[in-house]
Every structure is written in C-alpha cells, then in structure tokens.
Request: fold
Amino acid sequence: MLCLMGAAQGDRPWLDVHRTPDERAALAVKAMTLDEKIALLHGPMAMPWITPDGRQIQVPAAAILSAGFVPGLARLGIPALYETDASLGVANPNGIRPGDVATALPSSLVLASTFDPTLAYRAGAMVGAEAHAKGFNVLLAGGVNLARDPRNGRNFEYLGEDPLLAGMLDGEAIRGTQDQHVISTVKHFALNANETNRQYLDARIDRRALRESDLLAFEMAIERGKPGAVMCAYNEVNADYACGNHWLLIDVLKGDWRYPGWVMSDWGAVHGALDAVNGLDQESGEQLDKAVFFDAPLKAAVLEGRIPAARVDDMVRRILRSMFAVGIDAAGIGAAGPGAAGPGEHPAVKVDIDYAAHRALALDIARKGIVLLKNDADLLPLARSYKKIAVIGGYANSGVLSGGGSAQVIPTDGPFARIPTGGLKPNWMDQVFDPSPPLDAVQRASPNSIVAYDAGALPARAAALAANADIAIVFVIRHEMEGSDVPNLDLPEGQDALIDAVAAANPHTVVVLETGNPVSMPWLGRVPVVVAAWYPGQAGGQAISDILFGDVNPSGRLPISFPRDSADLVRPALPNLGAEPRTPVHVDYSEGADVGYRWYAARGSTPLFAFGFGMSYTRFDYRDVKVSGGKTLTATFEVRNTGAVKGADVPQVYLTAAAGERVLRLIGFQRVELNPGESRIITVTADPRLLGYFDEERRQWRVKPGIYQLRVGRSAADLALGGEAGLHGI
Ligand code: BGC
Reply:
C-alpha cells in the first residue's frame, strides 16, 4: 500500500486523496496538454441517434448506452464520465439497454408532497446506489425549476412552486446521491418553466424577482447538496441563452454564490465556443449542437487568443475538482486504507442491486406523498365489508401511469404496460404504466369483496357497473412529458364525462388522479372523495389502496396550488400554444417572485386547493405559538393529534407581514408523526433570505427593520394562529 501511495504521490500527485480536491485538481491541470484539457470539455450523447439534420450519432465503444459520456484520460488516471438521466430513478431512454430495469420512484411532485427532507435524501441515495451499481458516475438529476405554470409538461420532475420546499428537498436528494460517490447535477439553470419551443424560448423576468424565486431554490439546493455540476437550461433568460448567460453563470453562480463545480450544458443547448467566456464549462450531447463547439473551435479560439488559456484551465479544474470531491475516481488510495470507505475508492462498478429494498422506499414515498383532497362524510377509509367494488378507468388493471421524457425509467417488478404513443419501438413519448395495478391491490385489501373492472372507455357501461356496486373507484390519468406543455387544465379523452356518469350512478364515487400537474375538476361537487396520487411510481397501486382502506393514514400536502380554472392563472392561455416548432417565442414571467400561492395571495383570491393542503383520517390542533425576533424570526408552537388514529401532519409557518408589507411566504415546516393524544413542540427558524429582499444594486440580501408577523397553518390558505416580533434588519 505504501508503495502504491508513493507512486500516486510521486509522478501523479493529484491522485493523493490526502490533498484537498482543489489541490488535486490544480496539480492535474498543470500536468495536462491542451488536447487533454479540451477532451474533458465535451462529450457525445451515448445513444445511436439521427439528428434532425440527418447526422448519425456514433456511440464510443467505451461508453455505456445512456444520455452522455465523456472519455477519461488513462495517462493521468482521470476516469471517464458515465452520465445517466435519473430524475426518478436510473433512466433507460427508449429502452436503449434492453432488459436493464431500475426502481421507478414516484414523481418528484410526490416526493415534494411528503414535505420530508429525510425521504428526499433516501431517494437520492437510492438512485445514486443503483446508478453506481450499473457503472454510472454522474446523475443528470436534481431538477428544481419552480412550477410557475401548472401546464408545464415537466412539472412532475420538479418539486413544486415554493423555493424553500423545493430547494431543501432537492439539496437533500443531491446530498444523498453524492454520498454514494456519484456526482449529481442540479438542473435546469434557470427559468426553464415552460417546455413549448424550449430551445427557442426567451424567459423574461425581473432580475430581483428571479433571485427571490427560482434562483433562491437553486441557491438553497446548491448550499445543501453541493452538486458537482450545474446543468444550464435550453431557454434564454432575458435574451441571453442560459448556457451562455454571463449574468447567470458568472455573476450569480460563480460570483455571488462562489460555486466551485462545473457548468454542463443541456443536450443541444450550446450556441458557440464563446459560451465558454460566459461561464459554460462543458458541452454535453455534443452532436445535438450545430457544431462540436468545445472541441476544435474552442481549441482554435484558445490558440488564437480569443479565449484565454486560463479560462480553459478553470473549466478543467472545475470538472476535476468535482470528480475528486465526490470521489468517483478509481486510482486514488483512500485515507482509511484499502477496502475501507474513503474518497478515491469508489469507482462505479457493476454489482447486483437489492431491488426489493428499493421498492420498499418507492412504496414509502408514495404512501407519504399521496394527497387526500376531499373526503365528504368520511367515506374513506373504505370498509372491507363492501360486497361489490367497481374499479373503473385509468388502466387500473395494468399499472399506474408515469411521466415521459428523459426521466422515463423502465421499472423492475416484471412486465409493464406501454401505450406506444411515440411509435412501435420503445420511445420516450410512450405512456409507461409502472407494474403496480391498483385493481389487484384493491382486491388484496378487501379479499371478500367482488372487485370488478371496467376500462371506462364507454361511460354508460362504466356507470352500469358502478350502479350495481357498493362503491366506485374511478382512476383518471393524464400523460405529461418533457418537451411539450399540456394545452390546458383538462383531463383528456372524455374522463370528465366518465366521472360524471359514474357519480350519477353511484353517490359513493372515489376519484383518483394520476397526473403530472393539477387538473380542473368540473365534477368536484358531485363526488365525495378525491385523491391526488400524481405519478406514484412502481409501488403506486399498493400505496393508493393502502390509503383508500386506511392501512396508511394520508399525510401528503400539495406542493403546488390547484387552480379553479385557467382564469385563475397568471397566464390564462398557455403561452405559445400552437407556435411553429423551432421558432423564437417568449414568456413574460410577470408574476415575478409571486409564484403559485403567492400569486393568489397577492391578488386576494384563493385557489381550489391551496399549496400545503392535504387531509388526514385524524385531526391536529396547534396552540401556544410564540414568535421571537432579533436577527431572524423563530416560531415555537405545539401540535397535538386530537383524533382517534395515529397520523402524520405537516404544520407550516408562513410570513404574512414584513415591516408593514403584506406578504405570504413559507418560512418553515416540519413533518411530524403523532399517536392519538400525543403532542410535540415544534421550532422553526427562518432563513433571513425568506424574510427580506434581494438588493440587485448591492448584490446582497437585505431585511428591513420592523415588525414581522408569522402564522402557523395547515396550508397557505388556512393560517390558524400566529404572532409577531421585531427584526433589527440587515
Ligand atoms: C433534458 C435534460 C436531460 C438531457 C439528457 C435534455 O433533453 O432537458 O434534463 O438530462 O436531455 O438526456
């Protein structure tokens, strides 16, 4: 061992893990030729692919078929980057690795609905562990764009509309992944809030507002998770492409936030070698760009002095620093000695995966994240004495829907159903149903009932089945995916009419939503029960049934507001609906930092179901709220389970007035499990950034001196009680 360590410290001192990642990176950069440096700065999409202009993408032999690959430098002991999409599990796009399955977690909206940072950590760690065991060392994960529009086709991959909730959970997920010695990105930096013409979209917003909303979510996620890489977005932000946006990448990310990692582009988001001088460090999916800008054109620019050589050194240093900080390299010797855990001993290697344990985590997240929205006359939990249960629609006999695009996971647990929306071969536009049929789970939960299924295609036939049943459970679905927005809030394919027909036939109708966003509910007044399951992942059917029958007490809370209808939205019509593909469009995010519930509050209106709302089979009371001030605000209060069953609550603390100004901002929350009669004292301290504002001129956060009010509530629209205190100001 001493001999190896000597060798590592001798001719390749950057492999010595006793040095800091910064020292190691600096030493390695010094030893590299310009060609070696350039080789680290770009990489292909590791998939056979025909580009829109007809070029065939060749996959390097050393790559694992997946989203991305950057060859390593054997001479220097620098590993290759094996990159996979991983928003909800290790992706297998278009089934490119035949037979390679992975645990399909619930969508990130389910995770956000748990309001549980520890679950986010476990989710990130689980995906990191599976990726590592499949040979990957970079996860294209950590999506934290705020849900500004409930028609954004990608919201299911993100964590809702609030910067604190999203930033905290995202940071924990990234931390979990990187603890497995797999680098995670945080993405898509920034303001990729609509998918329509995303590569031609100018996202316009006031800079201060962006700092206080989407950028704050990124800032918090980066502080907690320390992701090795930031993936810049496709869109422009205020007329400059995100991947060549000096203000975003240099002034904010690397300047104000002192981010030490690297900025990788989204796939096909680079517009020229000069993006390097505006802060981009690496070109990903290089064949998708008009040229491989970070290869020969970048080299030429350096040799001709148009791009300083020192900038290239900085780009390489940042990539190496993250590799060393996360410990993905094989060649180093761990501080704790051979065989023990330590940086430098964790190259990704293929090993068997304990899918059963990982399925249990998928189940846990779904159970805690499914949200009960309505439960008139306590129809839920369902009795097991019903003679006949009608299960209708949503392919509930086959599985639960998942979202489409680069995040698509091919689930474990055997064959799954697929509607070939994208064509006959597996395609990322297909509707994939995770193999956890709610129909089977309901039958298992109530073995003495006759459980009958109708596909729901013909409302009259479904209604006839429902009329003869004691209870009808209608599953409704809407497939959403990356690359497009949904045009409106409607459920597709006549499912509103299906619900109406079933509810007219049987007053005991339960509606279960499997969607990637809020939807409108014209039938809400005619059904007693509504459950939002989002896309609940590969144990989703079981989790839904567990909630319906009360094996699990629902505890999910909405991370995104449900509008009454599109007139409630900042932009009632979907921006750029019908725009010619590949033509420039723009969106004015005129709501600024008033995203989601803050927009409703600013207008003095209430949504259909508010951010933070979710029902339980028990009740929780809050009392004895004390608020103290000074440098920041702290709220202390007691929460008590006053009902008859055990359950989990998520008390939320909101700022409602700031130095004379009426505001509404989530400043803290705590998920807490309580037995009947049990109580807990909760203390929540505000991050001062949530109390103040960003002073764009001074480029710093400020808090005005004055009186501040906090309220403890069950949702953004149900603020039970509170108090106030003074702040000195910053
Ligand atoms: C997506 C990214 C993804 C990348 C690689 C892009 O289309 O926007 O989220 O990581 O593809 O698959």
